[in-house]
Amino acid sequence: MLRDVDLSGYRKITGKNVPRESMVASGHRACQGCVEVLAMGMVTRAVGNDCIICNATGCMEIITSPYPQTAWKTPWIHVAFENAGAVASGIEAALQSLTRKGKRKGPLPTVLAFAGDGATADIGLQSLSGALERGHKLIYVCLDNEAYMNTGVQRSSSTPFGASTTTSPAGKKSIGQSTRKKNLPAICAAHDIPYVATCSPAFHLDLMNKVRKAMAVDGPAYLHIYSVCPTGWGAKPEIGISLSKLAVETNVFPLYEIIGGRYNITKKVTKPKPVLDYLKVQRRFRHLTESDVAKIQQQVDDSFAYLNTMAATFPAPKEKGGAKDEE
Ligand SMILES: Cc1ncc(C[n+]2csc(CCOP(=O)(O)OP(=O)(O)O)c2C)c(N)n1
Ligand code: SF4
Ligand SMILES: [Mg+2]
């Protein structure tokens, strides 16, 4: 579905004016090398402190809020595994109501929902769908580490084909995860919302500017953030950002945005690297044979060809630049 989207309120971040303050304080309890927590910091830098955060149960909730401590510098609520979309909707609706009744003034704080891939693709999909359908002004961020990490690396419907997890273990009779990753950005875009984007912490300006566009649109926005989990993936903690980059450079995780149904690939990869480069540095893929890798390469090529066709058929208008924050 196509619709016109007003991005005139978009305030661009450049290398010279990167906001300094994350709303997640250091001293949280994430594992060494966790990229998911870095991603959350980048999102909140772009948003600023005038926000209310709903955090579904999952790693990011656990590592930031061990009672009686908190790593949060902003209003934050822990919600159940399945209802981040519903709680964020309720907060936005309450703010709108208070404004209508004259009980609060000024611009609305940004309402943000953070949820993992399990919370988004599986158990919370209905509450996300409802929030998108109702058109609430909120930003829903899926932090995709491709499994249920908080509870011990169980597969989700966002786990990639061939990955070994505790509930899709690789063995003589199993390749590991036997289905392909659910296409959540496409599912969200199908709700006719103004803004959907994929983001990678390896490209922080691209990520933060997508947050800024999500803030600017009038209605719901969905951001899907690739979030390396060294613990669950069996990757060295020090390669989190280079692995994030590799995912983009191999087209495993292409960066794009869908603005009112129109596509824009925001990082063009002229010569994609082989998928094997990406797979071989992760223990979850170490059982794959040459023919398994060839199959995955074909899947990646097919998915990227589909994305390219969408971008060629329904191109997003050229970015006008957006006003900049003070430098
Ligand atoms: C209804 C319900 N079922 C199961 C759980 C247990 N549980 C808590 S977090 C979690 C996995 C979260 O996975 P994901 O959303 O991908 O976030 P991650 O921990 O990977 O960041 C599970 C199964 C729960 N809290 N509530
Ligand atoms: S298990 Fe993974 S996502 Fe969770 S805190 Fe550790 S590295 Fe981060
Ligand atoms: Mg997860």
Give an overview in words.
β2 (51-56), α2 (59-64) and β3 form a beta-alpha-beta unit. The protein has helices spanning 35-47, 59-64, 84-100, 117-123, 125-134, 184-189, 204-216, 230-233, 240-249, 275-279, 290-313, and strands at 11-12, 51-56, 76-79, 110-116, 139-144, 195-199, 221-226, 256-259, 262-265, 323-324. An 8-stranded mixed beta sheet has the order 3-2-4-5-7-6-8-9, with helices on both faces. A two-stranded parallel sheet has the order 1-10. The chain has one domain (11-320): Thiamin diphosphate (ThDP)-binding fold, Pyr/PP domains (Rossmann fold, 3-Layer(aba) Sandwich), CATH 3.40.50. It is built from 11 helices and 10 strands. Bound molecules: thiamine diphosphate, iron/sulfur cluster and magnesium ion. Residues 116-118, 145, 147-149 line the site of magnesium ion.
Please write out the topology.
Layout: E1 11-12, H1 35-47, E2 51-56, H2 59-64, E3 76-79, H3 84-100, E4 110-116, H4 117-123, H5 125-134, E5 139-144, H6 184-189, E6 195-199, H7 204-216, E7 221-226, H8 230-233, H9 240-249, E8 256-259, E9 262-265, H10 275-279, H11 290-313, E10 323-324
Parallel strand pairs: 1-10, 2-3, 2-4, 4-5, 5-7, 6-7
Antiparallel strand pairs: 6-8, 8-9
The structure holds thiamine diphosphate, iron/sulfur cluster and magnesium ion.
